[in-house]
Specification:
The structure holds two protein chains of two kinds. Chain A is mostly helical. Helix content of chain A is 85%, strand content 0%. By secondary structure, chain B is mostly helical. The chains are: A mainly alpha, B mainly alpha.
């Protein structure tokens, strides 16, 4: 009986430990492993979608051979969004929630901005 | 008695008489002839008028004092924002001539003024706050950087589609900032439910704003209803709030005078540099090709290769400008020609405030690569700038190279548009 209890206790501790690792360690591990790739793919996919939308509008407004070729090319360019989705799902499977993934997205946007604070630091603001 | 007979009566020999005649005639013709400066002044006045400039004193909008007074209260009152955190005046300050003196505005959570507001860590709005000078004029046709509220013939183009809340362009424009997420709206469950942009969702938010104001300020709401002849037992509608704010803008931001207006219509004199600057503006510099009319804008859309600061309306440091309104690729990177009234006091310049001074923004029109310090630009920034330069080449008149001295003269001319 004692042995059984000991086994059950050990199992419970292991489950708690595994759950803690999954909830806390998993997201951190996922961010470390695929965070940069996710940010890069997010930018690439955003760019591809914008290019595709502009190409589509160009065909709708003023169709030409070049506009159609451009649209076909941008359609193919959307493949990168598939890669983005795959990494996104991988992050979710590793226990990252929507907010954590959104934060990564925000980091991606901020990294590729002309940072406002930096702009203010490098330019002299002189008010009357 | 003629000059000749007068000279004959004088006891002078022929050569002295001839000399005296020439001297007198030169003096008389010089006193009647137009000086070079006067000629340039005449040319400048004519050029201004032929480019649509008209007397600002004749275009002052009429307003109702009581409605404008209530509008001032509303303009400065935080409770007209959804979460009661921010007022119109937070980004349209008198100290900055109706703008906010920073590259792009800081919405929710922003504190203080100027650089202090940026450092306070509030929500960054992707566009530079515009001054409000002249917005009350009936001929002010397009609002915001991308003209998302615009008068087209007898109708108004806006996010409200075929049912704008008012027939007045300014009043429609006043409706938009209070609906903008991050700018004046913090997301909660109610806003989440209205997230899908539609006229009904906008109406639901606006109704809630008006009801909340009426709840917080019953006396003011009563006065508003009385001013607009609305039955006291009916609900206050946001359009009444917007009308009242518009009335305040008509009053407080009316362009009643500036030195250039005095020069064109009242014969006031300007100095040589200002005059040369004006000749450059309407002449060699071709500025008036777009900066025309009484507000110094054609209310059309052009791409100018100014830089991009912050995230941009389209994210990742990109702002497609007018394209976001029309979805026509021809409008990529275009923005409404900014009016120039009080331009010297409304820095920074450009849709994201990337140009710190007039010299910089004028130079962007003819030598945008001058600012390009490659090591300071990221790949995305440089590529984006290249796209804007290409768009600007397709749309902008070919502005010739201007010397530093010419740019300085243009700036002196632009300072004539300052409102004291």
């Amino acid at each position: 009986m004692k042995n059984k209890l000991a086994v059950l206790n050990t199992l419970a501790v292991l489950v708690i430990l595994a759950s803690a690792v999954f909830h806390f360690g998993g997201p951190a591990f996922a961010k470390m492993m695929w965070g940069e790739e996710f940010k890069s793919l997010m930018y690439e996919c955003d760019h591809a979608m914008k290019e595709h939308y502009i190409a589509k509008r160009r065909v709708e407004i003023d169709v030409s051979d070049m506009a159609l070729k451009n649209l076909d090319a941008t359609r193919l360019g959307l493949m990168v969004c598939h890669d983005y989705d795959k990494v996104n799902k991988r992050l979710e499977l590793m226990g990252m929630n929507r907010e954590q993934i959104s934060d990564l997205g925000l980091e991606a946007i901020e990294e590729r901005n002309y940072d406002l604070s930096k702009f203010v630091e490098t330019h002299e603001f002189r008010y009357k | 008695m003629t000059l000749v007979s007068l000279l004959k009566h004088m006891s002078l020999d022929t050569s002295k008489r001839t000399l005296l005649t020439i001297l007198i005639l030169s003096f008389v013709s010089a006193s009647f002839a137009e000086t070079y400066k006067e000629k340039k002044e005449r040319f400048l006045r004519t050029a201004a008028i032929s480019n649509g400039y008209s007397d600002v004193t004749l275009a002052k909008p009429s307003y109702d004092e009581l409605k404008a007074e209530l509008g001032k209260f509303l303009f400065e009152e935080k409770s007209i924002s959804y979460n009661g955190e921010i007022a119109c005046v937070d980004c349209h300050l008198n100290e900055f001539s109706g703008g906010d003196g920073i590259p792009v505005s800081i919405g929710l959570n922003g504190k203080g003024q100027g650089v202090e507001r940026i450092k306070s860590g509030g929500k960054i709005i992707p566009r530079n706050s515009l001054t409000l000078w002249g917005r009350g004029d009936n001929d002010f046709k397009a609002f915001f950087w991308d003209g998302r509220v615009e008068r087209l013939g007898n109708s108004i183009s806006s996010q409200f589609g075929e049912a704008p809340p008012s027939e007045n362009t300014l009043e429609v424009a006043v409706h938009l900032p209070v609906l903008e997420l991050g700018e004046m709206v913090r997301e909660d469950d109610f806003i989440q439910a209205q997230r899908l942009e539609s006229q009904d969702s906008a109406k639901a938010v606006l109704n809630r704003l008006a009801a909340s104001f009426e709840n917080n300020f019953p006396d003011k709401a009563k006065k508003l209803k009385a001013a607009y002849n609305i039955k006291d037992n009916g609900p206050l509608e946001f359009v009444v709030i917007a009308k009242s704010i518009a009335e305040f803008i008509k009053k407080d931001f009316a362009v009643s005078h500036h030195d250039f207006n005095d020069f064109v219509f009242n014969g006031a004199s300007i100095d040589e540099d200002e005059l040369d600057g004006g000749m450059l503006f309407y002449g060699k510099g071709k500025c008036s090709a777009c900066h025309s009319g009484r507000h110094f804008t054609d209310f059309k859309y052009h791409a100018v290769a100014v830089g991009q600061v912050a995230q941009g309306k389209n994210g990742f440091g990109v702002d497609y400008g007018r394209f976001n309104v029309t979805h026509d690729p021809k409008d990529l990177y275009k923005f409404r020609t900014p009016p120039l009234i009080d331009v010297a006091d409304t820095f920074p310049y450009g849709h994201s405030g990337s140009s710190m001074g007039l010299k910089e923004v004028i130079t962007d029109h003819f030598d945008p690569l001058k600012k390009l310090v490659t090591e300071k630009y990221s790949d995305e920034q440089r590529i984006n700038l290249n796209k804007v330069i290409k768009a600007s080449g397709r749309t902008l008149v070919d502005v010739p190279n201007l010397s530093d001295e010419e740019v300085e003269k243009l700036i002196k001319f632009l300072k004539l548009l300052t409102i004291d």
